[in-house]
Structures are given as C-alpha cells and as structure tokens.
Write a structure and sequence with these properties.
single chain, 243 residues, alpha/beta, five-stranded mixed β-sheet, four-stranded mixed β-sheet, 7 helices, 28% helix
Amino acid sequence: MMQQQFDVAVVGAGVFGAWSAYKLRLAGAKVVLLDAYGAGNSRASSGGETRIIRMGYGPDAMYSRMAQRSLPSWKALGDEIFQPTGVLWLARENDAYCEAVIKNLTEAAVKFERLAESELRHRYPQLKTPDRSWGILEPDSGVLMARQGVKAVVSKAQSVGAHYRREAALPPETTKGKLAKLRTTNGDEIYARDFVFACGPWLPQTFPSLLGQLIYVTRQEVFFLGVPAGDDSYEKENLPAWI
C-alpha cells in the first residue's frame, strides 16, 4: 500500500476535473487527478465526439458568463479542439427561451444576428423550418471536440507537473470533521489538504448516504444524422451547428 501527500486531490478527469487540476497546478499546488476509466472515456459526461459551445443559455446568464470565460481557454488548445462553425438557434413564434437568449447576449455584449424567417430560409435552404420561425446566429461560437479536448487538458496538466492516475477512488469513509484521505481500489491511500469531487453522474455512488436520494441521473439520447453522399451543404462552411 502506498501513501502519498498532495495539496489537492481531484477525483474525476472530465471537463471540470481536468481544468481544475490544470489551473490548480499552475497556481502552484501539488495536485493529483484520478479517473476510474481514463480521461474522455465513453462512460463520462465529457466523453463522446463533440459538444456545442455557445453563449446563449436562455434566462441563465451565469452559464453565458461561464461560456464567455472558457472559450478563449479552449481556443488556446489549438484548431483541432475548437471548430468555429458558428451556432444557429432555431426559434418558434413567441419563443420565450430564445427571446431570453437575445436579452442575455445583448447584456453580455456577445456578437449575434437575429434572422427573420425569410433570411433564415434564404441562408440555410437545407433546413426545413416551420412557418413563423426565426433564428439567432452566434457567429463566434462553435463545436468542441469533446474527447480530444478533455485529453488535451489532462496532458497540459501533466506537462506542468500534475500527477494523473487512471484509478478509482472508493467512497470516502464516514468521518467527523475534515476529510483527510482517500483510498483507491488498488489499496493506496491519498492524503490531501483539499479534495475536489468532479464526478458528475457518479456523485450519488461516491456519496451514497449524502447524495443518493438527491441527485437523479437522466438518460440523454444521442442521434446521428446521415446526409446524402457528396452533399456538402451540411459541411461547417455552409451550415452552423444548430440548436
């Protein structure tokens, strides 16, 4: 059994865990990052091929501010991680959510265009939009290569001295006061001044007595759309990522 001492132990190498480990290490902390299945794995919320990064979040301005702050960091990872496709919102008549998107984009000074029904159909004839529809175009938003991006952040963290281990942490033992250590499935003990649990949908299993009845993980469907062979009208140069 090994015993190791760190300033911060981060459990979960998804987006939040990977960036936390990297930024903490840049701040001078001795950091260890753990993940049971590895960065960008298929079981993770941060796995999969792509994610849309957008500034619009309806009435939730906090998420818009988070996206604004994070986009430059993603861009700094290289062109292979961020694809500047633009993001197109497709809105209904009297669409309260998209009206809130416009309000928050305006207040946050985010560049956007509001497209009337005629302009939407003129620019993007490959989309069959219903009558009285309209759109919002965020030209500076786009697509992140999710799996590649998470792995790139973990590599950056390692390059500046963070420790990374593909190993599962056992649920912390019930204790009074501050948590002092974690045990892993390999039998090792990890001591740290602070712990970050960035476990996403695994949190109820990590803290069953505390969160088991409070967090319910929903199933998200993923659809893959096939286009006619040789049709380039759906390429990123001709059609933004759309919501």
